[in-house]
Amino acid sequence: MSDDADKQPDDGSSTGCVDLTDGERLLIDRRRRGKSQGDVSADLGIKQCTYASYEKDEERRFRHAPPLDIPTIEVVEPHEHVMILRTRQGLTLAEAAVIVGTSRATYVQIEGGGRVAQKWAKYAIKQLTEKASETAD
After folding, report:
1. What is the CB-side half-sphere exposure of residue 121 using CA atoms within 13 A?
2. Exposed, middle or buried, 106 (CB in 10 Å: 0-12/13-18/19+)?
């Protein structure tokens, strides 16, 4: 584990409310169930790249989707919020790690929801939200 995993940045900011797209709901549900895109696509009888496009909310693909059970996500955990912020900005894991000020390995753990995520998630949310605001200006 890297040294930055032992730091404890927590500015006390909350994760706030996150309005999720259908694709983001599919992504969070899949990850909560511990399944890969390949697992879910095989269950649905479709190609993995097709299922991946559903998680990305690619409209042209979603229109032709088999009936999907879009889950209701009542609570978005901090590490899931971090993942949603990164994917909405089109950032790679490495790019997000630079913004947050940690190694890529630690950033992967943040999105994974482990021990490190508990220490870093709120800080990562703050940093990624500020980056999104800068980009929007």
Report:
1. 22
2. buried
What pTM value is reported for the model?
0.75
Could you list the pLDDT tens digit for every one of the 137 residues in the chain? 344 444 433 333 334 457 899 999 999 999 999 999 999 999 988 899 989 999 988 866 666 666 778 888 989 998 999 999 999 999 999 999 999 888 999 899 889 887 666 677 878 888 888 888 887 76
What is the DSSP secondary-structure string of 39-69?
HHHHHHTS-HHHHHHHHTT-HHHHTTPPP--
Residue 1's CB is within 10 A of a number of other CB atoms, namely 11
Query: Cα 10 vs. chain centroid, distance in angstroms?
Result: 19
